[in-house]
Design a protein that fits this description.
single chain, alpha/beta, Rossmann fold, 5-stranded parallel β-sheet
């Protein structure tokens, strides 16, 4: 089986992407980032997911994007809550982390070259997303061109392909796909502002998009939300 590096946040999309990489016949190597995010419980979720998936290796990379700030996820600004679908789909929200996917893909590209991995999987999505510019097909295509120029493997014509299998899917479609692949979504987390018990707030953009997806898929979200009890 060929090797693939999978960017794994512990969220719904990246967990589904990991399952897709395995479905595609790859041996997955998972990469997670602890980057100073206030919702760092996602790192624990990524560990659970990687363990359940029995990945070949799971590395957790420590970088501190709080050095730059510029995002509610790496600073003290309030996380937006209770926004309408229209608000979430217009403009770039304060939860955008500057150049995050560019940074993450650069680490994945380096590891892929070391592993001689032919593919890098990233769970970006251009439909049910919160207006992030680095989740669009144009970004992935541009990064692929850069990767082909930036590495020895790329120059030799055998650099890794950047795979974004969920990019044109709705959250409901992603959830249905994950279910067909046996994904256990109870292991995941999506909330930007969980409480001290790890329960999702149910009100941030990420929670609302997740809940909308499960509702449209006709299944219950298995994670805990504030108000569900201890």
């Amino acid at each position: 089986m060929s090797r693939a590096v999978v960017l794994l946040s512990g969220g719904l999309d990246s967990t589904t992407t990991l399952a897709v990489a395995r479905r595609d016949g790859h041996t997955p190597y998972a990469m997670t980032f602890r980057y100073g995010q206030r919702h760092a419980i996602e790192v624990d979720a990524a560990r659970r997911v990687a363990g359940a998936a029995k990945v070949a290796d799971h590395v957790i990379v420590d970088i501190d994007l709080r050095t730059f700030g510029g995002s509610a996820l790496t600073g003290n600004a309030n996380i937006p809550k209770d926004r309408s679908a229209e608000s979430m789909s217009s403009g770039v929200p304060i939860t955008y982390v500057p150049a995050r996917n560019t940074i993450f893909l650069s680490f994945a590209l380096a590891w892929a070259e070391v592993l001689d991995a032919g593919d890098i999987y990233i769970g970006v999505n251009a439909l049910d997303y919160s207006g992030y510019p680095d989740c669009r097909p144009e970004f992935i295509a541009a990064y692929q061109r850069m990767a082909d120029l930036a590495t020895r493997a790329g120059v030799e014509g055998k650099g890794p392909h950047i795979r974004s299998p969920l990019i044109d899917m709705t959250k409901a479609e992603i959830i249905r796909l994950g279910q067909s692949l046996g994904v256990d979504y109870s292991l995941t987390t999506s909330c930007y502002d969980p409480d001290s018990h790890g329960r999702a707030c149910g009100r941030c953009d990420s929670c609302k998009l997740r809940l909308k997806g499960f509702s449209e898929a006709g299944v219950s979200d298995p994670i805990r939300y504030v108000g569900d009890g201890p």
